[in-house]
Amino acid sequence: MSSPEEILEVLPHRYPMLLVDKIVEIEPKEKIVAVKNVTFNENFFQGHYPEKPIMPGVLIIEAMAQASGCLLLKSIEKEEKEMYYFAGIDKAKFRKTVIPGDQVKLKCEVLKFKKRVAKVKGEAYVGDDLVAESRLLFAMK
């Protein structure tokens, strides 16, 4: 599932809200490593902030949630497929800024996986630097 077309088959998000560009590694019910390439022409940089653009923290969390969504949807049988919705967030921390030109590596690991609920630990890195982390809760609807 490394190509953009494969990601689009799994996630309902579309530009400008699709924040996962590539899946590097996936182990269903276990973990995923994905990439978000941050470019200067992202629409949010127009207002956040024009003089010194940084990626909003909430969008870094959303990128983690989308990578986690790929993982969870690839972890269930096709006949079970509905949709996992982002239902909660705990322990979010933002450690460094993300700027145009950065490549954000999203590492997400399943902490709890039940049929209708899942909890995931998400981390975002630029290079070797941890830029954000959080616990994400998902519910199937």
Question: What does it look like?
Answer:
It is a single chain. The protein has 141 residues and is of the alpha+beta class. It has one domain: Hotdog Thioesterase (Thiol Ester Dehydrase, Chain A, Roll), CATH 3.10.129.10. It contains two helices and six strands; from the N terminus they run αββαββββ. Strands 1-2-4-5-6-3 form a six-stranded antiparallel β-sheet, covered by helices on one side. A hairpin with a 3-residue loop joins β1 and β2. The longest helix is centred in the middle third of the chain and has 17 residues. The radius of gyration is 15 Å and the shape is globular.
Query: Compute the gyration radius: what is it?
Result: 15 Å
Strand order of the largest sheet: 1-2-4-5-6-3
Q: What is the global morphology?
A: globular
Number of strands: 6
Counted up, domains total 1
Q: In what range is the share of β-strand residues? A: 35-45%
Low-confidence segments, given as residue ranges, are none
Biggest sheet character? 6 strands, antiparallel
By CATH, the architecture is named Roll
CATH structural class: Alpha Beta
Q: Bin the helical content.
A: 10-25%
H and E string: HEEHEEEE
Structure described in brief:
By secondary structure, the protein is α+β, with helices and mostly antiparallel strands. Helices cover 17% and strands 40% of the residues. It has two helices and six strands.
SSE inventory with pairings:
Elements: H1 4-10, E1 22-27, E2 31-37, H2 57-73, E3 84-94, E4 103-113, E5 117-126, E6 129-140
Antiparallel strand pairs: 1-2, 2-4, 3-6, 4-5, 5-6
